[in-house]
Amino acid sequence: MPGEEKPPEEIKKSSGSGFKKIMMLTAFALIGFMAFVYIQQSGILNQLLGASEPEEQADRPIREVIHRFEQPFLVNMADRDILRYLKVILAVGVTSQGTVVELQQNEVVMRDAIIMVMSAKGSEDLTAPEGIEALKHELSERLNEILQTGQVMNVYFLDLVMQ
């Protein structure tokens, strides 16, 4: 009736269940928002909607994929007066994973090309940093002449010993 009060047990039950509903709705909303942000940031949303970003793609630099040659390169140098050798552990930065696959499939040809370029160098060619940079450039050009599916962007010496 109009002036009757609810028993204390009913008041506790009704207020507790309302709070639980609000907390659950808040948690679901937060989880949904986090999922939306993740999907948007990862690019999945654009793929699902079929949208592309050609202008942004053109402005983005190409990210290189690193391929490390497992075996070191050991060559006799072109010095005439004394027997010298060059030992190099080499990695290359290439334009795509497909290029890495091509490097791996043609490793014999790639290693031969690298050895031929390096063995044509004398110790005087590699005593200055400019000479080492020139060797990197020459190796990159030679490998790019062979590659079909991409290109070498950078050559990295992980170890270089001349003796």
Task: Briefly summarize what is shown.
The chain is of the alpha+beta class. It has helices at 8-42, 44-49, 54-59, 97-105, 107-119, 129-146; strands at 65-68, 73-76, 85-94, 152-162. Strands 1, 2, 3 and 4 form a four-stranded antiparallel beta sheet that branches.
Coarse morphology:
elongated
Helix content: 40-55%
Classification by helices and strands: alpha+beta
Query: End-to-end span in angstroms?
Result: 104 Å
Summarize the helix and strand pattern as letters.
HHHEEEHHHE
Q: Please state roughly what percent of the residues sit in beta strands, choosing from under 5%, 5-15%, 15-25%, 25-35%, 35-45% or over 45%.
A: 15-25%
Low-pLDDT regions: none
Major β-sheet profile: 4 strands, antiparallel
Rg, rounded, reads 32 Å
Number of DSSP E strands: 4
Q: How much is the average pLDDT?
A: 85
Number of helices: 6
Descriptive account of the structure:
With 163 residues, the chain is an alpha+beta fold. The protein is built from six helices and four strands; from the N terminus they run H-H-H-E-E-E-H-H-H-E. It has helices at residues 8-42, 44-49, 54-59, 97-105, 107-119, 129-146; strands spanning 65-68, 73-76, 85-94, 152-162. Strands 1, 2, 3 and 4 form a four-stranded antiparallel β-sheet that branches. The longest helix has 35 residues, at 8-42. The protein starts with 7 loop residues before the first helix and ends with a strand.
